[in-house]
Amino acid sequence: MSDLSVANSMRRPRAPRKPASPAPAPDATPSPAAPSGGAGLDTAYLETLLGYNARRAALSVIAVFLRRMEPFDLRPVDFSVLTLIAHNPGVTSRQLCAALDILPPNLVGMVKNLQKRGLIVRKPHPTDRRAQGLHLSAGGKRLQREAQSTATELEHDVSSALTPNELATLNALLRKVYQR
Hints:
180 residues; mainly alpha; Arc Repressor Mutant, subunit A; 54% helix; elongated; disordered N terminus
């Protein structure tokens, strides 16, 4: 038996795929008795869960973020790193890891990439000889300012269903969940 056939024989058999259900007509409106979830599913229990709602909201915001940040070639984490450096010149990698809950090995590649793009520079830290402070280059400052303006606009757009007080309350409540 060849290595490939051994590998294939060790795989768990999969059930045949079910065909996708047809999409509803564009002008179709759900009946009042229909469950609240998409595709006719009852999502009532899931909608009582913080994690489910937070994830669904995050996915909606991130989809818009990715589209709007494409011209800057920035992922959400890249934007966060650049923004923290912009607002905290001389910040260390260790501080970034703590603030963003990123593992150091993951940040190393990100910093190298941003440095290769000419967006950040490393300078000796003024009080810790072992550390290097991170600073935005002139191009990094320009890109970060434009990206921050775009992020502010997209946040306004995706939260337009909320009043300013509701948005402030939502942000405060979410921070209470992750800053415990």
